[in-house]
Amino acid sequence: MGLELLIAAAKALLVLLMVLNLAGMLGWIERKGSALIQDRIGANRAAIFGFAGAGLINTMVADPIKFLTKEDVIPKGVDRLLHTLAPCINLFPALVTFAVIPFGDVLEIGDMQINLQVAPLDVGILYVLAMVSLGVYGVTLGGWASNNRWSLLGGIRGSAQMISYEIGMGLAMVAVVLTYGTLDLQEMVRAQGDLLFGFLPAWGVFYQPIGFLIFMVAGIAESKRVPFDLPESESELVSGYFTEYSGVKHLMFFMTDFVEVVIVSGLATTLFFGGWQVPFLMRDGFHLPGDVLIGLPSLLVTLLQVGAFTVKVLVLCWVQIMVRWTVPRFRYDQLMRLGWKGLLPLGLANVVVTALLVLALGGGE
Q1: pLDDT, average across residues 139-157
Q2: Within-domain flag for 365
Q3: What's the structural domain count of the chain?
Q4: In which band, very low, low, confident or very high, does the pLDDT at 82 lie, cut at 50, 70 and 90?
Q5: Can you name the residues that pair with 51 across neighbouring β-strands?
Q6: Is 122 among the domain residues?
Q7: What is the C-alpha separation between 86 and 250, in angstroms, rounded?
Q8: CB-CB contact of 350 with 210 (8 Å)
Q9: pTM
Q10: Is residue 261 part of a domain?
Q11: Does residue 231 have a cis bond before it (omega within 30 degrees)?
């Protein structure tokens, strides 16, 4: 029992460090990526002994020090407890969502098999939807507790937007659940290890291309980034629901956006791109056409699986950053119209067609 708790704690700490460090690196990638897109240099001033690291010192050292040492300003007339709780409630659901996302199959150490998933839940999809729903409270509370009309408007916008696009995201997930017949994310990834037509990976994106598009659009809207950044629209609301936050509290709101980018990428990888699956790679090695087996040590197989999952997540993070710097912002009426008149009916139609196909192919027996 003690060893199991130790392993679970180690997995949780590993995943937490991976997500937070990747979120921090995404801040640097976004700065330099946007600079490349806009033909400018980007962050490059801060340096240690003359070493700027292409802006790494600016983003990974100078900015954290600045946030951690800034004064925590609390406006007059606010509830200090709620004002402090809001950024915590905003960041916490985003971090714990990754607990059910598998980043590998199993790690074999002697006779022991370690499931590379922090919380192996049979109802992982429901857990994800529950955590995503809790994120609304942080945004709403941040705006309401600030005693600022612009912050309040940003919080109201954020809650309406997130609730609207959660429906589209949920419908995309339902279609994937119908396709693979399970709510367990680990089992869903294992099912994607099969092959279609003998050569094509049975990834969710090939079964559910429309579901993938719906999920990505809804996921970007959930993270409240351009072109869906209406809750924090600088030209209208200063900074929206976190205008009245400074120092570490502002950093927590800022970090949540990038953590959500990682979460969306991790979920999209798991649901639509085979998760940790590598084509033709099984637990004992590569099974190539013609019954050719290239045997590999168990540890190497695990490293390849974790590496494949990481690469897929990084690619999808880069896609989201590219979208953020190339697509103009929606008007608020366009934002809501896309959610309710675009994604909702398309998602419902996708679920119905998927259910009929599964039933026709014998999946409903």
Answers
A1: 85
A2: no
A3: 1
A4: confident
A5: 48
A6: yes
A7: 11
A8: yes
A9: 0.92
A10: yes
A11: no
